[in-house]
Amino acid sequence: MTLMKKLLGASAAIALSAGAALAEPGLIIDLGGKFDKSFNESAYNGAQKWVEDTGGEYLETELQSEAQREQTMRRMAERGANPIVVLGFANASTLEKVAPDYPETSFAIVDMVVDQPNVQSIVFSEHEGSFLVGMMAAMASETGTVSFVGGMDVPLIRKFACGYAQGAEAANPDVKVIQNMTGTTPSAWNDPVKGAELTKAQIAQGSDVVFAAAGGTGVGVLQAAKDEGILSIGVDSNQNYLHPGSVLTSMTKRVDNAVYTVFEQGEEGFTPGINVLSLENDGVGYAMDDNNKDLVTEEMVNALEDAKAKIVAGEIKVHDYTSDDSCPAG
Amino acid sequence: MSVDTQKGRPDAAAPAAHPAIELKGISKAFGPVQANKDIAIRVMPGTIHGIIGENGAGKSTLMSILYGFYKADAGEIFIAGQKTAIPDSQAAIAAGIGMVFQHFKLVENFTVLENVVLGAEDGARLTPSLSKARKLLTELAAEYELHVDPDALIQDLGVGMQQRVEILKALYRQADILILDEPTGVLTPAEADHLFRILEGLRREGKTIILITHKLREIMEVTDTVSVMRRGEMTATVKTAETSPEELAELMVGRKVLLQVDKAPAKPREMVLNVENLKVVGEKGVERVKGISLSVKAGEILGIAGVAGNGQSELLEVLGGIRNGTGRITLNGEEIDLTGQNSDARTRRARGIAHVPEDRHRQGLILDFHAWENVGFGYHHDAKYNSGWLMDNEALRRDTEAKIKKFDVRPPNAWQTAKNFSGGNQQKIVIARELEQNPDLLLVGQPTRGVDIGAIEFIHQQIVALRDAGKAVLLVSVELDEIMSLSDRIAVMFDGKIMGERLPAETSERELGLLMAGITDTTRDVPVEEIEANLARKDGATP
Amino acid sequence: MTLPKWADVVLIPLINLLLALFVSGLVVLMIGEDPINAMKIMVNGAVGSTYGWGYTLFYATNFIFTGLAVAVAFHARLFNIGGEGQAQLGALGVALVCLALPWPHWTLALPFAILGGAVFGAAWAAIPAYLQARRGSHIVITTIMFNFIASALLVYLLVSALKAPGMAPESARFPEGTFLPNARDVFGMIGVKFARSPLNVSFLLGLVACFLVWLLLWRTRLGYEIRAYGHSEPAAIYAGISPFRITMITMLISGALAGLMAVNAVQGEAQRLLQDNVLGAGFVGIAVALMGRSHPVGVLIAAVLFGALYQGGAELEFETSVPREMVLVIQALVILFTGALDNMVRGPVTGAFLRFGRRPGATTKAAE
Q1: Judgement on whether residues A184 and A45 belong to the same structural domain of the protein
Q2: What ipTM goes with this model?
């Protein structure tokens, strides 16, 4: 067997496995690591739950740098993973380039819309979830000032901020909302030290409830809030357990559910197009558990449930920052 | 000079019973190079023993073994009849061996006294050692003419003085055997004579002295016995009184050598180089050349004599386009730009100045280049070495082969790396490159430094041949012999100035030596102390 | 004491490499993985398929350029460790060219992209070069500082002027007319199947660069002067070679070569300007130049080796639980053994040669 034949054989084998019915799904964990207690971890938990429930196997890899995106994505596809889930808007441009090269493979991207026939774009109504936690923040605040720490300054995070501010104003029209972003580059997702500094600065300006929508940076925000004795709000995963008695609630973004669903549907059930996860289908929400039950009053829960019902029913329109890149509140 | 000068040592009970130092079967190899091969020497106490040989003959290796720097592969060392192992220099000092290196190992900003004591202090407190040393220094000074101010800083002393400190250091450590490695390389003739008087004084006291040199004259002048080394082997040991310079030279080289340059009287023609009021500022802003004027005609060799570091190097470098200066220099009547704005070494070459630099390792050659690459060095823009955009390496190699043949470079291998040639052959490559450019003016500095006797003869002939072809030659050398035998006129430099010009036939080594020390009144009897004081003042005067 | 040329260029790097792999194996063993299996995965992943080759040679192309950049500077005894920053600026140059016009065809875009990358890279190297040549600021310090400035500059541009609509800090995608043909297309034309990979025509550009650097160093007057200056500055001045001129020109060439890396990484693969377009290739280039003895052929071989290490390492990470950091450890060991510990091997090897009676340096005639 000549070398060339071997090579051809190898690529044929890959092609074969790609077409096989029993392909394993794949998950590419984004920068920040799978134990970021937030976005990536949520996705990872979804995949783990799928493993527990179905006994299936999946391929997983972790990005280490920006420029690896393309190779990692291709590597997944070449290995025959199907469908493949990629996390985060930063993958959009790469996926746009890679997806057409693997028409047989299905991709799902979280947080961004990629218009390709084999891509499912999973986006969340973060503004709705943020609205609810904003309400709760304003109600819990004694100073009348609440604050927001964002990760990287991108429209997605402004969408969080804008929903939060609208919610806070809905609960208390006189509320003051302070907003800060950690940075303009992806390193802003993983800078807990700066997160803590921003939080302390906000506390100095009177804030006593802080909402962190900043990935790994949020860990520092929550820690600072605990250290300074104020309330904080987690994001993406349920982060209430991090500092019981200090974390008021978490704006959950059910990335785990999204990953679970894509994995479960597999190749056959895969539907390209945009998949919006909102309050209506429990894609976003706020977290209640033993860790925060003493912080949250019945009044708050009632108000939030009421607002939730109205949002789902369309009675309350929460403005989506990304729709026109502007925010009426805050 | 007789051998029987052993009087004045009453305490030496049986002075000649054992040799002071005896080496048996010493061998040492560095890789494939056998630096020392089965060397045997016996040096009797109270004698001066010379070791002579060309560069790379193995002299320094042998002394390094004796001083514990290298370990011999085989062989034994006996000190005063006792078999002694010398694993390091501490052991050598303990065995009574003192060494004066070619390059002094002194702390520049310490006083003489501190340097003498350094490393041989008695106990933690310095004061007792210092006062003991001071007393000893006074005694030694009286006994051997080893006068040095104990409180002077080393950096303020001239080289002759520094050398004396080295000797004092060895004596302070109670050395009975003193080894001096090329001690006169940096001295004026008067200073060298003084050194030899010191050595004779030491010998009278029963000290044993080993003198390593390549200068036949010194061997003949001061030694009792002499060993000749060639290619790592001891070719002969003879009584100095029973030999001649010619015989020693033949033993060193392995064939008959012409020690005198054979040349016809010069026929100077038109002026080639004219220098007026040249001034050069060196590193640290010190003026190194202080307004000199000279001229060289076609068909003559002007020799510049002087102790190293008196501005000769700077003079050569300005002429060669390496340094900037002020003044007026004309070549064939046309002025040369000295500011460095419109000229560098390359433009000098284009105008017909060839330059054999003083330091071939630092300047004249790229040691890691092949021989053929070095043959184009400096002339690599010449059309003959290029074809269009690219260098014509083939042409360069052909040219190298021709030069190797003509100048008898050994081994005749154009692909050999420059550093793997011997000093003499390296110099031949440089000389071949520069002389074959057919220059109007040849600048040549230390043409035979570190070059073996056989090659010296050849290089001298080439320089004279160039003169006879009607070219002007400016020769700079610290070897007075060389200056005397090659030059048609001699200018002596001291402290950046020209002290005087002489014709070789009408001057003497003594007179030139005094001029080299800055003493222009050469008719009177000048004590060596004045010479030293003069040299030291010059060295110390430069801020 | 010199070794025969072949031992210097082949034997010693080979022993270094084997030592590095051996120590890496021990480390892999210590974290409880099978080193033989790990090795198999790495080798197979790097060269066991057209996919592996594609990535190996893609990475190698980056390393060829940065390695040559370091090597050229080495010859003038200039330690350019600013390849990282120069390549970043080269990436900016390439991106500006690619985004400037709706290029109709890559053959038109490529020459201008080459020019853009080279000019920007060279310009970035010119400042440290000038500071070295005229002010004596040590080039090691200045070039490494310029790496930081370069990356900050890119971040600034990517969140401001060059930012594409969207959320990521990256430029717009280049027009299709700038896309370089990749190995799959090229091999496809002659009917050979080649897996999809970012390997593109820049690899050929890298080979041409190797040849041109060789030509420069050993066949031109400038190269002769660069090498002479690198061996001895006083000798260079004696020969009428201007240190200022050589320092400037050498660093410009070095920076340009580093900048050319972007043609492969930015135009060839990413097709947009990212925050970090170099991924440490600037630093790997130092190891490549060291291992390749600053000779273009050596650089080429070392670059392919490091490309294989990168690609094999990625596969290892993918296939096993050997953590990413481990792969870095292996790469670091190779750099350590080939660069820093070179003399550790050289001594015994020289000794062995002497013992077996071959006279080293006796025949030094060899390919330059």
Answers
A1: no
A2: 0.83
